[in-house]
Amino acid sequence: SATMQIPQDESAHKPARQRLPNRRGNISFNFPHDGRTFHATTTHYADGRLAEIFLDVGKAGSTVQQHAEATAVLASLALQNGVAMETIIHAVSGGPLATALQLASVR
Q1: Is the pLDDT of residue 38 over 70?
Q2: 88-103 burial by CB neighbour count: b if 16+ within 10 A, else e?
Q3: Are 103 and 31 within 8 A, CB to CB?
Q4: First-to-last C-alpha distance (Å) of the chain
């Protein structure tokens, strides 16, 4: 069986994650998507760039809620590692995360 070789110094391959302050303001809003009402909460860096997003669809434990939470966490990590919001929107176009990001960009 093939084994994967991992470089000894992985730090050269890791992007620098831009950390957020422990206390920060947020903006919350609701929006409809595909017959459901989603609730989004966003936080921003001091320079105004979007830093993280949380999505809630109000059905705790449901598959749609789990997907909303997971995609928002992944988008937040991408944003904090320097991925442009427009790139994320393009990658998830048509979904509730894209709608939330587009609405967050005009708030």
Answers
A1: yes
A2: bbeebeebbbbbbbeb
A3: yes
A4: 53
